[in-house]
Design brief:
- By secondary structure, this protein is an alpha/beta fold.
- It has 29 helices and 29 strands.
- α1 links the parallel β1 (about 1-5) and β2 (about 30-35).
- It binds adenosine-5'-diphosphate, aspartic acid and magnesium ion.
- Magnesium ion (MG) binds near residues 7, 202, 205 and 263.
Length: about 800
């Protein structure tokens, strides 16, 4: 004998019921088949009852629609010759149902007893229609009236089973009927006065377990719409996978903590009889599914599953008057129990002056009432504070038998949550160590489930969600590189880089649930589907999407964009900036960003601020982290100035060379930022800061070479002024050439204890200098340190260009994933 249960979606319509029949008919053993109401019917019946109670006549429409749904199913399933008795059964049931609802309408009252009566029609109808269908296929099937066999107390809506009587009724009934297949409605039962009761929402699973246990079935099969109990709710975690094998206790914990695939009370009866229980997929019957039994040896994963309960309120009872006085918690829990309030989780701080419990939000108001009245006197005496109630929370739980023999699980759990900026409000670990639960804000729950799933199950890959502002030249190259590398990163670094948002100065576009941004045609998508760019909205969206491992990538040179880092870092969103503005802002701001990043476990990276893709800042960081001390940095850091001085030989005007540099894309829109030295000052400032020095732009000496007049007026005026001062530039060149020197714009940072200084300026570079052979857009940085005192550590190579800059940004993005 085995027991099969088919849930609401398995019997949602005629097409699905055909699949159910095929499964039933492929089984040769004696079987009891338990079915739920057609998908959605229980909810609709509750709605009809509630509308009637509110004297809203539209309950009739709801009933009409339901009647049609059942008639349609019967017509589609049964050959015309077999239809009439089934159709009239349906009509008769709906007449009765309508009469009940009419009474509710007139009385304006829907008692729990009447509600149970109303919702029992769902399972009655589905089970009768399916029985008729099987009979029409010449299957010898007997319909069982679960109301007569499963006896309960009179706790309507959530009745408790009288197992002794129930087991006896089931066994004698089945024994008396010589049939191979029995079909029974789930969910419904009756009390000692034969009033219809129900077993709680989702209770058909429980019905099936009750039959299985009474009959000592060889197995119970719960057929649903997913291929087993999964490592997390598949609607939230796309990478959730079916659990092959799970113990009764684990299944109980998981279902109790929200994995609605199995109704929690279901496990107890099958566990007592040691009946192996399968969770299988009606729509993929060949998938292995999950087996729940007493053998808890599932290989590999230490954590078996993750689940969550929503709509949780956190109640905190606090007060100095509680310390050392026994009995406070007893009174608290008694008050809650007397009010029938179920406590989901409890924690008490070791200082004993606060107890925190989690309850369902629907109980929160009542809880406040009863607790405040219980402690009325203490509250009046200010020994205890009025109960604090915070709603909008959720509980997330890790479940696994093997967790107790593995130290460090909770460490990993809270580390992963913390790294994603998820604040943990309360923690509880069951003494069985089979469950670690945390209360967190509801807004974070989806992210939290994914974060933990990634931390405990996805050795396969980690997902980075990146939002790029500035998809112009460099940003565009970056998208191209990401597209090209995606497969490699997934295969070699277990990293999935997902571009979840892009924006330029005009438009912005976000990936939506079902739709990722297509990196092959992001330009078209941005143009066609993008909405107008609004920076605040872009930032709000990043925060509101609340994706795990989120990164803002700033590929602009925009001041306003640089201002949003603070807000994002404090939401644990990492920032990768190509934009130099933030790192070269006043020191307090720079250090504020660094400490925010630290506080919220995010990263603030800006390698491309100096030398584009060259590993300049990374090298400097490595030197410092390994205990070296930088004594001097000398560098040529401007691709623009190199280009200009490599091409200027006093034979054609300096202005013309600058123009060429601008035309070829080597300069800022206003070339004076480069030629005046500001850009280089920012870079040496950033290097000095990364070397540990507290430095401001004003502290850097700029030995500029542009005549003063060049800084006046527009860019056009600048070109004119340069022409006017051509002699000045010629002189600079000739003086250097006379000494066989080249001109280079050099930045220096001296870090001697007695003299700390930074300067930038034009220098004569002799042929034996490291700086002499510097061509094209090359940059060079010399690090003199305690470990490299005479011969410096040199970083040299192309220090400008969209491709190398993009690859530097990309490397920073990957750094975020690797921490
Ligand atoms: P049925 O109607 O068959 O009783 P339910 O809707 O009650 O089905 O339960 C199945 C659903 O449970 C799945 O479709 C899935 O969305 C949800 N679910 C939540 N957590 C889990 C989990 N850990 N494993 C599998 N399914 C889960
Ligand atoms: N039909 C009932 C419900 O929706 C019972 C079940 O489906 O398990 O809650
Ligand atoms: Mg269910």
């Amino acid at each position: 004998m085995k027991v099969l249960k088919f849930g609401g979606s398995s019997v949602a319509n005629a097409e699905n019921i055909q699949k159910v029949a095929a499964i039933v008919m492929s089984n040769n053993e004696q079987q009891v088949v338990v079915v739920s109401a057609l998908g959605g019917v229980t909810d609709a019946l509750i709605k009809a009852g509630t509308l009637a109670e509110q004297t809203d006549e539209s309950y009739k429409d709801v009933l009409k629609e339901l009647e049609k749904k059942h008639l349609d199913a019967a017509r589609a399933l049964l050959p015309v010759t077999h239809q009439s008795s089934c159709l009239s059964m349906i009509k008769q049931q709906f007449n009765e149902l309508e009469e009940i609802c009419n009474s509710v309408f007139y009385l304006k009252e829907l008692s729990l007893r009447t509600k149970d009566r109303i919702i029992s029609f769902g399972e009655l109808l589905s089970s009768k229609i399916i029985t008729a269908f099987l009979q029409s296929k010449h299957v010898d099937v007997e319909w069982l009236d679960s109301r007569k066999l499963i006896k309960t107390n009179s706790h309507f809506g959530f009745a408790a089973v009288n197992f002794e009587l129930t087991n006896q009724l089931i066994t004698t009934t089945i024994q008396a009927l010589d049939k191979n297949i029995f079909l029974a409605p789930g969910f419904i039962s009756s009390d000692s006065n034969n009033n219809t009761t129900t077993l709680g929402r989702g209770g058909s699973d429980y019905t099936a377990a009750i039959y299985a246990s009474a009959l000592n079935a060889a197995s119970l099969e719960i057929w649903t719409d997913v291929s087993g109990m999964m490592t997390a709710d598949p609607r939230w975690v796309p990478n959730a996978k079916p659990i092959e094998r799970i113990s009764y206790q684990e299944a109980m914990e998981l279902s109790h903590f929200g994995a609605k695939v199995v109704y929690p009370p279901t496990i107890q009866p099958v566990r007592q009889k040691n009946i192996p229980t399968w969770v299988k997929n009606t729509f993929a019957p060949n998938d292995a599914g999950t087996v729940i039994d007493s053998v808890a040896t599932h290989d590999g994963d230490i954590v078996t599953g993750i689940s969550s309960i929503n709509a949780i309120a956190v109640l905190s009872l606090e007060g100095s008057g509680m310390i050392g006085i026994p009995g406070f918690s007893k009174r608290l829990f008694e008050a809650l129990a007397n009010a029938n309030i179920n406590v989901v989780l409890i924690t008490q701080s070791s200082s004993e002056h606060s107890i925190c419990v989690a309850v369902n939000t629907s109980d929160a108001i009542k809880a406040k009432e009863v607790v405040d009245s219980t402690f009325e006197i203490e509250i009046a005496q200010a020994k205890v504070e009025p109960l604090k109630v915070e709603t909008e929370h959720s509980v997330i739980a890790l479940v696994g038998d093997k967790m107790k023999s593995h130290p460090g699980i909770s460490g990993r759990m809270f580390d992963a949550l913390g790294r994603n900026g998820i604040n943990v409000r309360a923690i509880a670990q069951g003494s069985s160590e089979r469950n670690i639960s945390a209360v967190i804000a509801h807004a974070d729950i989806k992210k939290a489930v994914n974060v933990l799933h990634e931390a405990f199950f996805e050795n396969v890959y980690k997902q980075l969600n990146i939002f790029i502002i500035g998809v112009g030249n460099v940003g565009g190259k970056l998208l191209g590189q990401i597209l090209q590398q995606q497969t490699f990163l997934q295969e070699h670094l277990n990293l999935q880089v997902r571009v979840t948002g892009i924006a330029n100065s005009r438009k912005m576009l976000f990936a939506d649930n079902g739709h990722d941004i297509d990196l092959k045609q992001w330009k078209e998508e941005l143009n066609e589907q993008g909405e107008p760019m609004q920076l605040t909205k872009f930032v709000d969206t990043i925060i509101q999407k609340n994706f795990r491992n989120s990164v803002l990538v700033d590929v602009t040179a925009n001041e306003d964009v640089a201002k949003v880092y603070e807000q994002l870092l404090s939401k644990a969103v990492s920032v990768v900036a190509c934009n130099k503005i933030a790192a070269s802002a006043p020191y307090t701001h720079y250090s504020e960003l660094k400490s925010l990043a630290k506080e919220y476990n995010a990263l603030f990276l800006f390698e491309t601020n100096v030398g584009a893709g060259l590993p300049v800042i990374g090298t400097l960081n490595d030197l410092r982290r390994s205990g070296d001390v930088v004594t001097k940095i000398q560098a040529v850091l401007s691709g623009t100035l190199n280009f200009v001085f490599n091409n200027y030989d006093a034979t054609r005007p300096f202005a013309e060379v600058v123009k060429q540099a601008q035309d070829e894309g080597y300069t800022e829109p206003d070339p004076r930022l480069d030629l005046g030295g500001t850009d280089v000052m920012r870079k040496i400032l950033i290097l000095a800061r990364e070397a540990g020095e507290i430095l401001e732009m004003e502290d850097i000496t700029n030995n500029g070479f542009l005549p003063k007049e060049c800084f006046e007026g527009s860019v056009d005026d600048f070109y004119k002024a340069m022409l006017k001062h051509e002699d000045h530039f010629k002189k600079l060149y000739n003086e250097a050439a006379a000494k066989n020197c080249k001109l280079k714009f050099v930045a220096e940072f001296m870090n001697a204890p007695e003299s700390k200084s930074a300067n930038v300026g034009l220098k004569h570079i002799p042929a034996d200098s490291d700086f002499y052979h510097l061509y094209g857009k090359d940059n060079i940085v010399l690090f003199y340190t305690q470990r490299y005192p005479e011969q410096p550590l040199v970083v040299k190579g192309a220090g400008a260009g969209a491709d190398v800059t993009a690859s530097g940004v990309f490397a920073d993005i990957i750094r975020v994933a690797r921490v």
